[in-house]
Write a structure and sequence with these properties.
This protein is α/β, with parallel strands linked by helices and 267 residues long. It has one domain: Vaccinia Virus protein VP39 (Rossmann fold, 3-Layer(aba) Sandwich). It is 39% helix and 20% strand. A seven-stranded mixed sheet has the order 3-2-1-4-5-7-6. The longest helix has 13 residues. The chain starts with a helix and ends with a strand.
């Protein structure tokens, strides 16, 4: 399963494509701010809006230590670090994503607060009780064993720490058409219901605090593109296959088959 995830997401030249797009838009490549990458580095429904939901749900104090599972090329980690004045460590299965995350973080001068390494959400490479909070944005759809996923999150999060999950979940009975943004084929897609997530979390000893269904935002996100497109987009991240993935996800959102749901737990 891990190799299938790496194959789906992994592609060469991510940073080169992004930088070329920024140069074409007349940005000073030697003086870039983190927000300029948002169109490409926040690979989840709602983009920046989704990151804002997660940051708001985290019960953080300045200086706290946060883990971001499935951190991609680092957009949410950098946003959370900047917004909440915390340090963030990200792990991701895809080496090309981790390399891009590190390079972009260096470009925007955030290496003292944000770091990344290759790692699996079902075998997190950190000791017990390491983090004040753990978050995960659009990752569970790639993981079949939700029980193991939540037990690992609970293990590395300190007692009374916060765990925030913002995932695509099944909200209707319709079928899914592939490729989707998280999987090229149905064989490696593990979209599940909110109830399945909550059960796995409670079995790991977590306490459910809040549930927020952001489907209405998702419908707007997919059907009302910005009047002024950002200088970079998810095509620069995922390549030429992204429009088809986007269209399939859009249809599933519009039909009520899936939706983005945010779950907040206490450890």
């Amino acid at each position: 399963m891990a190799s299938s995830v790496i194959e789906h997401y992994g592609n060469d030249g991510i940073v080169s494509r992004i930088i070329s797009a920024l140069e074409e838009a007349d940005f000073d490549i030697n003086n870039l701010q983190p927000d300029v990458f948002a169109g490409a580095d926040e690979f989840h429904i709602g983009g920046r809006k989704g990151s804002e939901f997660v940051a708001s749900a985290l019960n953080m104090q300045s200086g706290h230590h946060v883990l971001d599972l499935g951190s991609g090329i680092g957009g949410p980690a950098r946003y959370i670090a900047n917004t909440l004045d915390v340090t963030v460590e990200g792990i991701d299965l895809t080496p090309e994503f981790v390399e891009a995350a590190i390079e972009i973080t260096e470009m925007v001068g955030m290496t003292e607060r944000v770091s990344f390494q290759v790692g699996s959400a079902t075998s997190i490479p950190f000791d017990d009780d390491t983090f004040d909070a753990t978050t995960m944005l659009h990752v569970g759809m790639n993981i079949s064993d939700k029980e193991l996923l939540f037990s690992e999150m609970a293990r590395v999060t300190k007692p009374n720490g916060s765990i925030v999950v913002y995932d695509v979940m099944r909200t209707g009975e319709g079928g899914l058409v592939f490729p989707m943004p998280w999987s090229s084929t149905p064989e490696y897609s593990f979209v599940d219901t909110k109830d399945a997530y909550v059960k796995a979390a409670e079995n790991a000893g977590l306490e459910l605090l809040t549930v927020d269904d952001h489907t209405e935002m998702a419908v707007s996100f997919f059907n009302n593109p910005p009047s002024e497109p950002p200088p970079v987009n998810l095509g620069h991240l995922m390549g030429t296959g992204m429009p088809e993935m986007f269209a399939n996800a859009q249809n599933a959102i519009n039909s009520g088959t899936i939706g983005p749901i945010l779950l907040r737990f206490a450890n």
